Amino acid sequence: MIEARGLSKRFGHVVAVDDLSFDVRPGTVTGFLGPNGSGKSTTMRMIMGLDWPASGTVSVVGRRYHDLPWPLREVGGLLEAKSIHPGRSARAHLLTLARSNAIPRGRVDEVLELVGLTSVAGKRVGKFSLGMGQRLGIAAAMLGDPGVLLFDEPVNGLDPEGIRWVRTLCKKLAADGRTVFVSSHLMAEMALTADHLVVIGKGKLIAETSVADFVARSSRKSVKVRTPAPHELSNAVTNAGGTVISDPDGSLTVTGLSASEVGDLAASMGMALHELTPVASLEDAFMELTDEAVEFRGGS
Amino acid sequence: MTAVLEAPAPFAIELPPGRVGLRRALAAEWTKLWSVRSTMWTLVATGLAVVGLCALSTGTVNPSEIIDDPTRRSLIGVFLGQLIFGVLGVLVMSAEYGTGTIRATLSAVPRRPVVLIAKVLVFGTVAVVVSEILTFGAFGMGQAILSAKHAVGSATAAQHAQKFGFTVPHNLKALLSAGSASLGQPGVLRAVVGAGLYLAVLGLLALGLATIIRHTAGAISAFVGAVLVLPLIVQALPESISDAIARYLPANIGLVMFSTHGTPDRIASAFSPWAGFGLLVLYAVVTLGIGCWVLVRRDA
User: Fold this and answer.
1) Nearest CA to A282 among A159, A184, A179?
2) Which of B1, B18, B103 sits opposite A80 (nearest CB)?
3) Cβ atoms of B242 and B232 closer than 8 Å
4) ipTM of the complex
């Protein structure tokens, strides 16, 4: 359980996190979604007691992080990729952490096995790839077998197989009854991993909801249409102010008009429709909700 | 709202009694210090500097030369050794920031003063033990070289004396052996012990600077500035001012600490060896104190 209440953080004049309140509950994977620079990492650092909030509070299992008697046995965090001394071996890094929290030595080898780094345990971390660094970070987070896990962009630098591994791991940890909080700037990844979402943009809370609700709440819906006369329908939709994309399977994706408007339009032209389906894409939903809240917009 | 599907039983963790404290932090810091190669390298380099310069400065002595302070002569390498030792002191803290390990460290031990105290105790203990071994080693080697030289000198003198029909005064050998020192002579043991303590305290001063500055290059520059550059600047000042300041400089305190008698003439009204040492310890304590304040207040 993580509870943030009115959490704010400023860096100079820049407001990184702005009056953020949310709950992360045990037993499910909660996605922390927001564009790059929206304050996800800063929030995670505040949860872990590394950055001080300008105002507000955040507690983990009912306490401030600093008041946890054995922090690594209660909370595990993967905050930044490869933030480990390059001259230290993977095993020595984990051993250092284990000693600080009275975690049995044998657990080090257990988590190395769990993340698949046993064969390189004695190798210096400086020689690790980004993906291996991520695995070691995840091993460190799981070292104390904690009930709360925070993963900041865990799939960065992982190959497809590694991404699927993280996804499965998150779900398994949640199924144990643990609290799992995973950040990403990729909507599609969150849709596959998370059950709940905390969505932020420019440091502000945009939505705190289930993935299903989040999609349903999207208003910019598109409509999938099949017709024997795609060309005519395209022209008619464009004239009516809609936008049409021809899909490879021969169907059309219409945005800017509702399903009923497209249906009425086709009827008025006496045109047959073989399919008319409203579609809300997850990506669209995310883009829409963060539209006004994107800090760094691309040049497109 | 979506219905809550059978929530899994909350994840139970078992915590040992007590909490993360100094004992755990010490164990972690000890492991950390010895699990990177740079620790051994810098210690070996310090040893080479202290012992190597001792061999150079005593080995090049002319057999008939009267040395004012043979103890100081054999400890001259401390001046170079302190710079390398300072680098190690800096790295103990700055490497945490440079590599990002500080986040893992403070997640494991959230009470930051405990982390700093553990670092001071672990590095301080290693520093005192190693630097005392080095200064006693350099002293022993230097005096052995010097007495060998003077044995040659006295034998030559005896040959010359016999050639010209003089009887060799039986105390000549004793006179000439004044060219080397032994630990029983006044001030010698204090100077050798003092040289080691000087090295160790400077290492802790460097650790304190790194805690404030956080960057390796910046902290090393500040350390070299305080130890090496400051004396040069003070020397360039008008005598009335430089005389008043010179005795407060760490390098000059060190020079008095590992001299057996008198005051090196360039330092007017120098502190006594132990008073100077007290001042040096005060410098280190104040620097570490500011470092602790900065560590607690700032974001990690």
Assistant:
1) A184
2) B103
3) no
4) 0.86
What are A30-74's pLDDT values in tens digits?
A: 999 998 888 999 999 999 999 999 999 999 999 999 999 999 999
Q: Is residue B112 part of a domain?
A: yes
Nearest beta carbon to residue B31 from set A68, A87, A99: A99
Spell B11-33 as b/e; 16+ CB within 10 A means b. Answer: beeeeeeeebeeebbbbbbbbbb
Question: For residues B183-208, b (16+ Cβ closer than 10 Å) or e, as one string?
Answer: eeeebbbbbbbbbbbbbbbbbbbbbb
The amino acid sitting at B102 is: I
In chain A, what residues touch B31 (CB-CB under 8 Å)? 92, 95-96, 99
Alpha helices in A39-146 (DSSP H): 40-47, 71-74, 90-100, 106-114, 130-142
Render the burial of B61-91: b for 16+ CB within 10 Å, e for the rest. bebeeebebbbbbbbbbbbbbbbbbbbbbbb
Minimum-distance CB partner of B20 among A52, A100, A146: A100
Q: What's the CATH code of the domain at A247?
A: 3.30.70
Locate the chain A residue with the closest alpha carbon to B118.
A100
Backbone phi, then psi, for A193, in 5-degree steps?
A: -105, -40
SS3 A221: coil
In this structure, is residue B4 part of a structural domain? no
Per the model's pLDDT, the better-predicted residue between A243 and A300 turns out to be A243
- Would residue A189 count as lying in a domain? yes
CA distance A91 to A110: 11
* Residue A185 C-alpha from the chain's centroid: 6
- Beta bridge partners, A246, equal A252
Strands (E), A185-283: 196-201, 204-210, 222-226, 243-246, 252-255, 275-279
Structural domain including A232 reads 222-279
Distance from CA of B114 to the nearest CA of A (A): 11
Which residues 91-130 in chain B show a CB within 8 A of chain A?
A: 95-96, 99-101, 103-111
Total count of domains within chain A: 2
